[in-house]
Design goal:
Blueprint: H1 2-6, E1 12-17, H2 18-21, E2 31-37, H3 40-45, H4 47-60, E3 66-67, E4 81-82, H5 83-92, H6 96-102, E5 106-110, H7 112-126, H8 131-152, H9 166-178, H10 181-187, H11 192-203, H12 206-229, H13 240-254, H14 258-276
Parallel strand pairs: 2-3, 2-4
Antiparallel strand pairs: 1-2, 1-5
């Protein structure tokens, strides 16, 4: 509504990325957006107009933080990219993590044909990824997260980052998608829940249906932590009193037995990570 109200007569589209497009928003999430034009010339000649639109979006969507940093090369690159520049980038310099991030690209507004053109380039480039490279890169990403947790000295469980948590499920999803071209194409811009359902239906493996349930429970616990204790992190509290409050809320609302069920979920997710990532 904000964009259409401006009546911009330019060839572009806006898409969402991250937790907004995958329908996994939490109380600590940003709104990740991407603005793509039809040509480099248009991006340059109308830069002021596009910057005005970006500033308007950031103002209108407060208090949520609107982030455009998921464009190629992040802060060091120009803010607005053309679809052809994206094609060249995907074919020559894009890393595995970027194909993971752009699998969440979901159309919001603008020229839908331009969006389809970009996702076509994305899928064609993803087709050339080597399975061993994908799995190796994902394992490195996971190891980096775990090493950071150790360096912070966390002795409690982080629902999002700890091995077996939400990031583990995300890595399993990405590994399956990036090693199955047809699934990757079908999964562009759909929610994590829909992707997991698609996995379980197409691959007909009970364990992938179990992964969907695990993801739902972990996400519910994360949102409960942030809502009950008014925090932006995903850490199960150390305090026995707070832990009991969380467990009671989950049990009453959703019949979740926190400790026992969480341990089983973590164990299952770790086993599935070994199977699908290595």
């Amino acid at each position: 509504k904000i964009v259409t109200g401006e009546k911009i007569k330019l060839d572009f589209f806006i898409a969402s990325l991250g937790s907004l497009s995958s329908k996994t928003l939490s109380f600590s999430s940003d709104i990740d957006l991407l603005l793509v034009t039809g040509s480099d010339k248009e991006a340059i000649e109308n830069e002021k107009g596009f910057l005005k639109l970006i500033n308007l979006l950031q103002e209108k969507l407060k208090p949520m933080a609107v982030d455009f940093r998921l464009r190629p090369e992040g802060k060091s690159s120009q803010l607005i990219w053309s679809v052809d520049r994206f094609k060249e980038y995907f074919n020559t310099r894009a890393r595995v993590w970027e194909f993971q991030a752009y699998s969440k690209l979901k159309f919001v507004t603008g020229n839908i044909d331009l969006y389809n053109k970009l996702t076509g380039f994305l899928c064609n480039s993803a087709y050339n990824l080597k399975e061993e490279v994908v799995r190796s890169e994902i394992k490195l990403m996971d190891r980096k997260i775990q090493n950071e947790l150790i360096s912070y000295g966390e002795s409690i469980f982080n629902i999002k980052k700890q091995s077996g948590g939400l990031s583990t499920v995300d890595f399993i999803i990405d590994s399956v998608l990036l090693t199955d071209f047809d699934l990757y194409k079908r999964s562009i811009g759909i929610s994590r829940y829909s992707i997991l359902y698609l996995f379980s239906r197409l691959k007909k493996q009970t364990e992938l249906r179990l992964l969907l349930n695990n993801y739902k429970v972990l996400k519910l616990i994360e949102l409960a932590i942030q809502n009950i204790f008014d925090v932006s992190n995903s850490i199960i509290p150390k305090s026995e009193e707070k832990k009991s409050l969380l467990a009671n809320w989950l049990k009453v609302k959703h019949k979740i037995l926190l400790d026992a069920e969480l341990k089983q979920i973590i164990r299952t997710n770790k086993d599935l990570f070994k199977k699908y990532v290595g």
